[in-house]
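Final report, Chapter 2: Outcomes

The project's central promise was a pipeline that accepts a single protein chain and returns its three-dimensional structure in a standardized token representation, suitable for archiving and comparison. That pipeline is now operational. To close this chapter, we reproduce one record exactly as it appears in the project archive, with the input sequence first and the structure output second.
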Amino acid sequence: MNDADHSRKPITRIVVCGKGLAAHMTAAMLSNNLPESIQIVSVACPDLTDDDSILGNLAPPSAYGFNLSAEVQEPNLLVNTSTAFSWGTKFEAWGAARRSWVQCFHLPLPIMGGVLFHHYLARMGISDLQPYLISAMAALKGKFAHPHAKNDSKLTRAEYGYLFEPLSYSKPFAAIASARKVKLIAANISSVEHNGDAITGLRLSDGQSLTADLYVDCTGLQAALISCLGAIVANNRSIRVLSSIRPNNAELGPPCRKLTGHSFGWQVESPLRGATARLTICSTDSEQDAVAAHGTAPQIAYDVMLGRRSHAWKGNCVAIGPTAGCIEPLTHAPMLLLQRDIERLASLVPCSDDMTMECREFNRQHADDYLHAELFHRALFAGEAGYTNSYWTASNNDPMHEKLTQKLSLFQSHGQLVSYDLEPFNPEDWIIMHYGMGRLPARYDRVADRPPEAEIRQYLAGMRGDIERVVMSMPSHHEYVQGIARYLKQKAW
């Protein structure tokens, strides 16, 4: 061991700053995955602006495993929060063609004779993928059951996520952090002291001075810590966010969000247990029309600068989720990126105050994740928008990355799927989106010509029929959630 190794100090304290969902999830995950020798302090920052609605109320299928790693089990969500299930997002009146489809979660589609499923659809001239997606059909019918229910082979191809309200969803994570003796300080940050690329301390509103080896910035769009170190958002495109959570005593709605395109931008509704979340996105010059479409005065309204910061981790400060980079909640991307940031941090917590390697690797992976999520969202605007206002003009005029150009051109010309390492959106996400947007392959894999046409038609008809029968036998989302909640309460979960 050389002298430099002797001079390194071990990590003994991590401070997590923020009052929202990202802060609670981060504190719970770190407290459950780090040794007790590392103290975790959570600074609640109660006066921060509530901007968690930018997460979009939709958690991906990976939330189940993520939550378990933080010791938050699904029954906890169903008994103690307003969380509901979700097959994905139903797009309506999207783009110039006013297209509608369910951007659902789904496991890989069948591979027949070594050929991907969509090549057989192309051979048969079939342009509608939804009848072959059980999660999409269940979403359209308002039905839900856990994919492993009765071990039905068709239902097991579906995947589900969660519809959530951030404050309610955060409570189990906050309880885990508290049980694991995370020190909570209910104070705001008065000032951030720093020297070069390192934070040297925080001055809090209660008069305390707080120091740590590693600072985790979960302060949302304010980015109270990382911005002090010069990590800025390079993009200059902003959107206006209008958000409301309204009580709803009616039956629980379908297990999916409903996202509708409008001339001013778009609006999404998420049915929750006992409430409905409504989120409206527009440009500033279209706010009057957006407010009118929102129905009632929004409870929260704020501007968001889209894009990622120049550094997600700089010096001894790491930014998580929307603090590091903000993406529109068109899909489950905001929560997916947040989860991946937290998992990445948990795996890269440095052993000493020399964080150079961990910082470099975190930034590399974060940049790749954000870029690939942006590619997926940019693909939703590829083509004519049909509207001329500033929101749609800015969305359609964003430069097309060469990776996306390659993805789109190869799928439309040959039905080929171009994939990059560890993309947050999987091939099924892309196939479903391509078909939903009306982007169909001009040619297909000629190996798909081997089976007789009658055999393929019989297979596809059987697949559709099986899916229809399974969906018809499923309970409504409301009935299923009510039944599970009643069962869990009887078991005193």
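Archive annotation: The radius of gyration is 23 Å.
This record, like all others produced under the grant, will remain available to the consortium after the project formally closes.
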